[in-house]
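Q: Structure tokens for this one, please.
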Amino acid sequence: MLDDFLLRAVLAGLALALAAGPLGCFVVWRRMAYFGEATSHAAILGVALALAMSANIFVGTLSVALLMALAVSALTDRGLAMDTTLGVLAHSALAFGLVGVSFVQGARMDLTAYLFGDILAVGRGDLAIIWTGVAAVLALLAWRWSALLTTTLNEDLAVASGLNPRRERLVLTLALALVVAVAIKVVGALLIVAMLIIPAAAARGPSRTPEAMAALAAAVGILAVLGGLWASLQFDTPAGPSIVAAAAVLFTLGLALPHRG
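A: Here is the predicted structure, written as tokens:
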């Protein structure tokens, strides 16, 4: 029998993998990796504000991550260069978050957990929040899947089909902010983007269809969670980084598989 803390860690990791796999495919297809990084870095500022105001960490993280994602979208629509805008906002948010945490008494010990994750410390309340957030992300992606795919492939075709590309970008923005908010406890703000990109990148080559890639990305994420937790227990390594390292190993092994053109 698994110990309670380990069972909770496995359930939290599986939830993250199920949401990060399909969403990560859109991040890869749209080349939004830096966008995801900016959103995840903003989560630290959300943590700092939540700790300072004795507010719920999930609410603080989600609010700031969503505001960051919306700010990036708004600035990009005004014609500013995407890479420059993301670089400025991502590192500024992280810096202000780290500075803000330094003013909160007793918060420095918690900071490492939010930067790199503390999946083995996930409680039942955390688990409920994580699975609720993941269910919302999966429902959102299932509802808008066809529209998101069409917009990703060709925005002109999407407009001709009666779709609003801006609205679909906002859907992805909301989904990404939700994943960041629920994943910060699992792998931490600095590793969230890795769990979005690596499983999706590993699934891209052998997949015939977008749906197959999404399913395979989720499966790779699940294997990474199980393998990373096993390695963490066996070798006494940090759980969050171990999960990402396991995903990287799976990506490397996947390079040997036949790739679809």
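A few notes: The two ends are 44 Å apart (CA to CA). The chain has a mean pLDDT of 87.
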